[in-house]
Amino acid sequence: LGQRRADSVASYLTARGVPSSIISTRSRGELDPVAPNTLPNGKDNPAGRALNRRVVITVTAMEHVISQ
Fold first, then answer.
1. How far apart are CA 22 and CA 24, in angstroms?
2. Is the backbone of residue 17 left (phi > 0), alpha (psi -120 to 50) or beta?
3. What pLDDT, in 10s, does the model give residues 13-65?
4. What's the predicted TM-score (pTM) here?
5. Of 27, 28, 48, whose CA–CA distance to 37 is shortest?
6. Three-class SS string for 16-67?
């Protein structure tokens, strides 16, 4: 699910003119949560799960984009 979310954002960006050659995606949801998915008592934590449904965008190598 996380990879599909990241790929969806990549598609959105390319549809708006960002070259696909400078976009990379990866899913890190299970490895890098920002909030616990369960409460201390072991029950589901909907608020934590909501925070973990996210996409982080990192911009690098801007000089390549500017020079085009």
1. 7
2. left
3. 999 999 888 888 888 877 889 999 999 999 999 999 999 988 888 877 666 55
4. 0.67
5. 48
6. CCCCHHHCCCCCCCCCCCCCCCECCCCCECHHHHHHHCCCCCCCCCHHHHHH
